[in-house]
């Protein structure tokens, strides 16, 4: 087993940062503030998992979905959970977390969740809107200097991927990264590569999924609160929900071991990827456990940490022409067949964290393979598990 050389590492990271970029349907700010000025964000506690286990026949059908999907896309390992109120819970650890070490996956491992982080970041923004400390229709230049069209782009457009702004994955960034692929970047450094760059499109026209949109919002959150993004996240979300297995990690020497290794499969051979989550920041630097993923799926889908108005605003969006596989993308959240949540992908990992508001069910999938040319493995697994729940074990 070998890691990719520096040149290939730059390509892999660039692919990670560009993964899911899309131009699409009409955006626009529209609407009003999510909540009246001065309204406070709701307080939440950790939701409990459904009691008992899902029926044995259903568990077998769910495991078959996992096994078949892993075989189809050559995924080394997966941690998967399905929780259905009134029916029970099911978690599964399948395959290898580390191929070379022959380390099996366990259900308590900490996984990179990549762009699922975006849903946390936008939640923080909506909390500040609920408190009257920001408006979704504020322009980004009120908080961050140097953004192209910053006097026109709104926070709503950034959260909904309709800003038209360029991402930071340009040659300047690639050159700096190539010099030292282990370098720990800061949020401000990543944002600096996007400042002043030519716009992709006029604000509010194309729906283009980029990390810079959310990293700009990370800077807004720091500006409003006067605290580092990681501390705001800890105080407002992780601590209230008891997310003791979830961390914002930019220095992966602190990543709890044993942990999974990420892979890109090349001609049937899983190639381990060098982890450097600092290249993602507020757009994708979070790591989590399976049970914490359950808690976040429930919380995000129910809108527990924000006002009803903010939850309604969060679910206003439109389809992406290319990129992450959602039916529509809204404000830091996507919708697929009535399930709301977020996907993540890159540097050897894919994740899917979704909740069905109608049934109250949640599905979380973590896999250690990315950049599959045919599919997003975790999303495909989520969709197939959701189909089993909808149609019964015969599906």
UniProtKB/TrEMBL annotation:
PROSITE patterns assigned to the protein according to its UniProt record, in alphabetical order: PROKAR_LIPOPROTEIN (PS51257)
Q: State if Signal is listed as a keyword.
A: yes
Residue span of region Disordered: 27-53
Gene3D superfamilies linked to this entry: DD-peptidase/beta-lactamase superfamily (3.40.710.10)
Its keywords, alphabetically, are: Signal
Query: InterPro entries from the entry?
Result: AmpC-like, Beta-lactam-related, Beta-lactam/transpept-like
Which positions fall inside the Beta-lactamase-related domain?
Answer: 62-386
Would you say which domain of life the source belongs to? Bacteria
Low complexity: bias regions: 32-41
Q: Which SUPFAM superfamilies match?
A: beta-lactamase/transpeptidase-like
As given in the record, the signal peptide range reads: 1-24
One Pfam family name from the record? Beta-lactamase
Record keyword Signal present = yes
Q: What is the recorded name of this protein?
A: Beta-lactamase family protein
